[in-house]
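Journal club prep — side note

Before the paper discussion, L.F. wants everyone to see what a predicted structure for a comparable chain looks like in C-alpha cell form. Sequence:
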Amino acid sequence: MTADSPQDAGYRWPVPPPGGWTVEDLFTLPDLPPHTELLDGSLIFVSPQRDTHSVMIDLLVAGLRDTTPRQFRVRREMTVILDEANGPEPDVTVLRAEAVSREKTRYTAADVVLAVEVISPESRRRDEQYKPRKYAASGIPHFWLVEMPPDDTHPVVRTYELDPVTGAYGLTGIHHKRLQVSAPFDVDLDITWDAVDSL
C-alpha cells in the first residue's frame, strides 16, 4: 500500500455484506458519491457527466413536461426501487402523479410509466443490456434509450414497449432528428444537436 493510497488518506471503501448490499444500505451508508446506483446488490459509482449528456437530459425533461398529461410527472435522476437488491437511477423518469411527493427520495417500479437512459461511454453496457432487462422484469411499461454519437450525426432515440406475453421490451421506433411517439402519450420533440445546443 502506497503512502498516498485511499486507506492512508483515511477513507475505507465499504465492504459488501454476504449476499450483497440492499436498497436500505443504498440510503443509509455514509459518504456514498452522488447518484450511486444499486444493481444486483453491487454499488455502482457513476462517472462525472459530460456536458452533452446533462443537456440531453434537460432537453428530454423540458420536452416531456411540455406534453405530459396531468396524470403524470417528469423527474430526472431519481432512484427507482425494483426490488431489495436493485435501485437504479434512470436519467429521466415519467411517474404516475399520485405517487409523487416532495419528501420522496425514491420511487418504486409500480410508480413508473417510462424510464429513459442516455448512454455514456462508461455506462453503455449497463444502459443497453442490463438495465432494460431489469426494468422490463419489474413491469415498467415503456423504456427509451438515447444514443449520443461522437461524430456530427444527430442523437438517436430508440423507443421500446413492454410485451405482456414475453415480459420483454419490443422496439417500437428508431428516431432521428425528431422524436414522435403516441405512447405512453403524444410526444413531438426536436432532438437535433441544434436543439441540444440551444439549452
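L.F.'s comment for the group: The chain has a mean pLDDT of 91. Keep this in mind when we get to the figures.
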